[in-house]
Amino acid sequence: MDYAYRMNVVVIGAGVIGAACADALAADGHAVRILDMRSPGRGASQASAGMLVPFIEASDGDPLLDLLTKSLAMYDDFIASLRERSGRAIEYARTGSLHVAMTDADVARLTALAAWLNDRRLACRWLEGEALRQADPVVTPKALGALQIDTHGFVSVQDLVPALMQAARFSGAICETPVEAARVDARADSARVIIGNNARAIDADAVVLAAGAWSGRVHVNGVPDLPVKPIRGQLLHLRWPDAVAMPKQIAWGGGCYTVPWANRTLLVGATAEDAGFDERSTVAGVSTLMAAVVSLLPDASRAALAEVRVGLRPAAPTHMPIIGPVAGQPRVIAATGHLRNGIMLAPMTATLVRQAIRAMGQ
After folding, report:
1. What is the C-alpha separation between 74 and 79, in angstroms, rounded?
2. E strands of 51-149, at which residues?
3. What confidence score (pLDDT) does residue 12 get?
4. Angle of helix 157-170 relative to helix 16-27, nearest 10 degrees?
5. pLDDT value for 2
6. pLDDT for 314-362, tens place per residue?
7. pTM of the prediction?
8. In angstroms, how far apart are the furthest CA atoms of the chain?
9. Which domains does the chain carry?
């Protein structure tokens, strides 16, 4: 980087998106200050299962699919670089996924997806009977079949966010918590972040608005608030029974998805509830997920419930995230609205924000 263009950048939000953007910008040589109203990773990120499953999250012809697949292609290098720069261990695996068919309609949909993936030379297999049992014996014997997609995987968000924050700090970034940004007063060549009830102001050359579900509550002068709303997601953290083999990979179907971890725990997600900013877990949400996971993985009935995690995911009016300069205020870069794809899109979002800041400095 040409350090003549070194900028003072404020990143509002220290979830996985804010942390990834801050890390990328600090590595580029910018002076980065991160603000979060809680602590890093304590919003939607802490309730994420960390799945990397673009071919389940989006379908053919969906513009989101292109963004997801490009981000997945970045993940190996993204994690390798982050491990080296942060000095932290990050649990990350590309063990594939099983999308389980429980009905004839599921079979039709998944076999069509298999044909589409095969046409594009993307490794996948349709499994039935003994082949499915060998792929993962813990999947319910009632399954009619499953689509195994080899490129899919998962990452521990509880490892990822601290590593991003550590790497950003090693590159000179400063993090302030708990600090709530109330508004941004942007000008043609600078911006000012107002903290709380006019308690303090921070001047910057640019602001990255990555406050997740709260992004619409950070007011930017002269433009409408970002159209982001919270969608509550409840997720179960189970301790798998000692005498039972762990699931081998991500399993999706029957009303839930599951992600197995090396410490013999299983994450089960997730509800999608339009409940405003209510972050409480509910009996209905927990019982729905419990019934779904037992239907998908019968041995889950013997697991212990370690905790219930709840996060508010940022939903945009379309299912596409909002990434890039805010119309009418080019000194403010939006990075929000990822809904449940924040982990999946972290590398790509950081790259797009980095490109926007670089363009600003030219």
Report:
1. 9
2. 51-52, 92-93, 97-101, 124-127, 145-149
3. 98
4. 30
5. 46
6. 999 988 999 999 999 999 999 999 999 999 999 999 999 999 999 987 7
7. 0.94
8. 65
9. 3-88+157-227+317-361 (3.50.50.60), 93-152+229-315 (3.30.9.10)
